[in-house]
Design brief:
This protein has about 250 residues and is an alpha/beta fold. The chain has helices spanning about 30-35, 40-60, 80-100, 120-130, 145-165, 175-180, 225-235; strands at about 20-25, 65-70, 105-110, 135-145, 190-195, 215. It is globular and about 60 Å long.
Amino acid sequence: MDFFPESFNIILDPSKLPKHVAIIMDGNGRWAKSKGLPRIYGHKKGAEVAKNIIYKTRELNIPYLTLFAFSKENWLRPKEEIETLLGLLKYYLETEFEEIKKNEIKFKVIGNKDDFPEELKKQLNMVEKETEKNDKMVLCMALSYGGRAEIIEAVKKLAFQIKENKISAEEIDEMLFRKFLYTYDIPDPDLLIRTSGELRISNFLLFQLAYTEFYFTPVYWPDFNEEEYLKALYSYQQRERRFGRIYGS
């Protein structure tokens, strides 16, 4: 984890910003518990923070942002909490739709939309369709998403292609495999941010994070404000990305 003095003045180099930021938004429940509030309040506050980070990313001209909003494992949570999370998603899709269009943001879902109620699924499809030509930023929402499930689904699709004699096993390489992932049309993340102090990736973008820079912060997601976001971006700018090569090569 990076630690910054309270008086630290964050100055970013626009030429060294990541092209793709991915965020595991963690700590809503613990934030609420620390304040003696039900977990629902943490999710509501966290949704507001997500909105702010989306538009800050757009302001910084970072072209891709992926938010881990609802995992496959989240379906195992209490029914009331699931209903709250789905209700918040529906609410923000409705209330932010025009602002997303105004900011020329393309909305994309990765994960299994078929797991969601039909009305919400239609809403997700509508927002995707209505924003598909926007080209200033891609907002990628991981919904009912699991990294292992994504890889297994890609393998099944490849196996079917082989069975149908459309490709041969010898043709399979990294570039071909990528075409069967949810993220086939977006670059891998340059920076992964995880809040709340947890030091793991929790089945998120397992294939895509191979050379991603990680930034872990103890700050709970509802407290992850603009300054905390800039700290993460500043930390990224101090790193030398080598992709397995020797420094300076």
